[in-house]
Amino acid sequence: MITTISGLEYKMIKRLVGQLNVPTSLNKRTSYPPILSKRFQHSIKNSTYLYQKNKHLIMKETIEKFYTAFAAKDPEGMVACYHKDIHFEDPAFGVLKGEQAGSMWRMLCNSQKEKEFCVTFSDITYTEGKGTAHWEAQYEFSATGRKVHNKINAFFEFEDGKIIKHIDSFSLRRWASQAMGIKGFLIGGTRFFKNKLQEKTKHALAAYMAKQNS
């Protein structure tokens, strides 16, 4: 049962939580400053619980919104889930920051506009400021016309209710084998291939961004 408190009490609790060293984890050993009444202590516990629960729901909803937008080829919906200081990283592009990350999703979604493209996601988890998800993409690799079914594990960190860090991990050799055939199978797991691929993708992204800003 959650105690109902007045607006004045809420303001006092909010001020006290901000100014005093009040624990945010709840357990039997949690102690509070003696100046707080039992009712205030109970209210703070409830407020902390609701705050943590709400944070977790926001993270889950943000991840779901991100991939739902991706499946709909809606890059603006995806970018809306990102913090302005987003740090993105994956084997194909390497590290992208800020506007680069948003533009990368715009470029990819635009490249699949009139093509068969399927994104599914599952296994969303979330904890204190972090989250994970599994997603899969099925599409045609434009350079070779070969079908690709990529399986990716994603890691997220959150700040201010937005994704501030997004790391995608997948087997580059497996992807290269599907996208490029025997050549990809032979060299897809090498550092040389990874460096060359990232050089090419970043060049394409820079050209795309320049065109969008012209």
Gist of the model:
The chain is of the alpha+beta class. Helix content is 48%, strand content 27%.
General description of the model:
The protein has 214 residues and is an alpha+beta fold. It has one domain (55-213): Nuclear Transport Factor 2, Chain: A (Roll), CATH 3.10.450. The protein has 7 helices and 6 strands, in the order H-H-H-E-E-H-E-E-E-E-H-H-H. The chain has helices at residues 7-19, 38-71, 75-79, 99-111, 172-180, 182-187, 191-213, and strands at residues 82-90, 94-97, 118-127, 130-141, 146-159, 162-169. It has a 6-stranded mixed β-sheet with strand order 2-1-6-5-4-3. A hairpin with a 2-residue loop joins strand 5 (146-159) and strand 6 (162-169). Helix 4 crosses helix 7 (191-213). The longest helix is centred in the first third of the chain and has 34 residues, at 38-71.
Provide mean pLDDT, rounded: 84
Under CATH, the topology is which? Answer: Nuclear Transport Factor 2, Chain: A
Estimate what percentage of residues fall within beta strands.
25-35%
User: CATH architecture, please?
Assistant: Roll
Instruction: State the CATH class.
Output: Alpha Beta
What's the number of domains? 1
Q: Which structural class do you get from the secondary structure elements?
A: alpha+beta
Number of strands: 6
Task: State the end-to-end CA separation.
Answer: 58 Å
Number of helices: 7
- The Cα radius of gyration reads 23 Å
Estimated helix fraction: 40-55%
Break the fold down into its secondary structure elements and pairings.
Elements: H1 7-19, H2 38-71, H3 75-79, E1 82-90, E2 94-97, H4 99-111, E3 118-127, E4 130-141, E5 146-159, E6 162-169, H5 172-180, H6 182-187, H7 191-213
Parallel strand pairs: 1-6
Antiparallel strand pairs: 1-2, 3-4, 4-5, 5-6
Helix pairs in contact: 4-7
